[in-house]
Amino acid sequence: MDTRSHPYIPNSQQETKKSMLHEIGIENIDELYADIPKKYLLKKPLNLPKALSEFEVRKHVENLLSKNKTSSDMPVFLGAGCWPHYVPSVVKEIAQRSELLTSYTPYQPEISQGMLQALFEYQSMICELTSMDVANCSMYDWASALGEAARMATRITGRREVLIPRIIHPERAATLKTYAYPAGISTRQTRYDKQNGQIDLEDLKSHVSDKTAGIYIENPSYLGFIETQVDEIKELAHNHNALFIVGVDPTSLGIMKPPGEYGADIVVGEAQPLGNSMNFGGPLLGIMACRDDMSLIRQMPGHIIGSTTTQDGNQNGFCMTLQTREQHIRREKATSNICSNEALCAVTSAVYMSLLGPEGLREIGNTIICKAHYAMQLLSRIRGVKTPVFNSAHFKEFTVNFDGTGLSVHKVNEKLLARQIHGGKDVSKEFPELGETALYCVTEIHSKEEIERLAGTLAEILGR
Fold it and tell me: What confidence tens digit (pLDDT) does each residue in 348-358 have?
């Protein structure tokens, strides 16, 4: 038994340990591990370093952290699901107020009016942004929202197949399969046009059948281009009594037609760009919304917050609605086991959207698309570099092919990093048919000078 004690760890004191063991009715702490085979138990004291003072710990941790390089230290042109955007300081200031930060989850709605109202406002703004009728209080991320949407579609239609595009984030597709497999759902990918990246409609038509629960598209796509055949795909889905599911980057909706206006039944997406920092890759924030149809709304997972009034009609109130869908009431018969999920991230996005408003979101969208196209223009002038790979309109992400340079994406990124620039994501293994191709991201945070520095550095690396 370890006999060391520490003033900040009460149960390291021997008397405290004895008292706790007596309280639970055992003689020795080893009895707690009786079910573990003895060969797996450590038979010697842990080789721990000596205790350090607060000052020494701080210096040690700061030394470790100094080895990191963040998006504040160099321009980062990496997106692919978690994007660098500017988060105004007021967003974090409001979201970190104790009445929001400590609320966690409103399972006692009558005493959580403030949190419920904040989540109701988030839902309302997501509905306005996507032009849908009902939104929930968020999902874990885009991938989990897609998985839930697929299961939702199969519950509604009674069918067991979902069609997805070939051009999709492979990790998103893998998460979808993880959600789909236990429910007996199959996923099938459809081909794309090699010239413009658009979904091959003839191939899609050949896959749609009376087994199809839903057709899923992303707009913009994972590789950044805008899908222009949304009306035809919607008609194809609805003519076969399947649901039309659309995945979106919400920062595009300030300037692009929202999916609700072209017939989407379910909308999913990633709300990390709406005021949530990258945070080394998480937590993220999944969007989910649907049209006003009770067959859809009752099958939607997660919390839905509603607005009501007191019996005399004099006061507004907020409540969790349709809770019979949820696991704390229906247990294994619930639509999903997702519960509080990313509530604080949803509040953060509500703060961000309310501060920017429609004009602010439109301005950010215009800024992003202008800067991304300026970057494409400069990079396309470099001999041997082709960008974008697809002959389509792009939003904030675009493909850059290096086949004509004699260098792999890995080598290019290595050389960029040595010059304090983080390049795009290597997608050559995900899409080998595209050759040595990277996915670059440009947002409102990238200055004209940084974009020109990227182009100049690439030209230097490639000897152009």
Answer: 999 999 999 99
The residues, ordered by sequence, that sit 6+ positions from 277 with a Cβ below 8 Å of its Cβ are 87
> Measuring CA to CA, which residue among 193, 240, 189 is closest to residue 216?
189
The answer to whether residue 271 sits within a structural domain is: yes
Residue whose C-alpha is closest to residue 362's, from 444, 268, 442:
444
| Kind plus residue range of the DSSP H or E element containing 216 | strand 212-218
Q: Which of 118, 115, 111 is nearest to 99 (CA)?
A: 115
> Over the stretch 364-417, which tens digit does the pLDDT of each residue have?
999 999 999 999 999 999 999 999 999 999 999 999 999 999 999 999 999 999
User: For residue 107, what pLDDT is reported?
Assistant: 67
Q: Which of 424, 430, 324, 306 is nearest to 372 (CA)?
A: 424
**Residue 26, C-beta contacts closer than 8 angstroms, at least 6 positions apart:** 32
CATH number at residue 349: 3.40.640.10
Residue 105: alpha-carbon gap to chain centroid = 20
CB 335 within 8 A of CB 155: yes
78 lies in some domain: no
d(CA 324, CA 61): 47
In sequence order, what E strands does 73-158 have? 134-135
Structural domain that includes position 436: 358-461
Residues contacting residue 60 through CB under 8 Å, at least 6 positions apart: 52
Q: Which amino acid is at 95?
A: A
Report whether pLDDT(340) > 70. no
pLDDT of residue 325: 79
164: amino acid identity, one letter: I
Q: What is the pLDDT of residues 2-16, one digit of tens each?
A: 456 666 777 777 888
For residues 434-444, average pLDDT = 98
Q: Of 307, 249, 381, 366, give the one whose Cα is nearest residue 122.
A: 307
- Quick one: which H or E segment has residue 248? strand 243-248
**Which strands sit side by side in the sheet containing 425-426, from one edge to the other?**
397-401, 437-441, 425-426
Whole-structure pTM value:
0.88
Interstrand relation of 266-270 and 243-248 (parallel, antiparallel or unpaired): parallel
Surface-to-core class of residue 268, CB atoms within 10 Å of its CB (0-12 exposed, 13-18 middle, 19+ buried): buried
> Do residue 216 and residue 339 come from a single domain?
yes
Residues 220 and 312 in one domain: yes
- Residue 71's pLDDT is 86
- Report d(CA 383, CA 385) in Å as an integer: 6
Angle at 116 between CA 113 and CA 122, to 5 degrees: 145
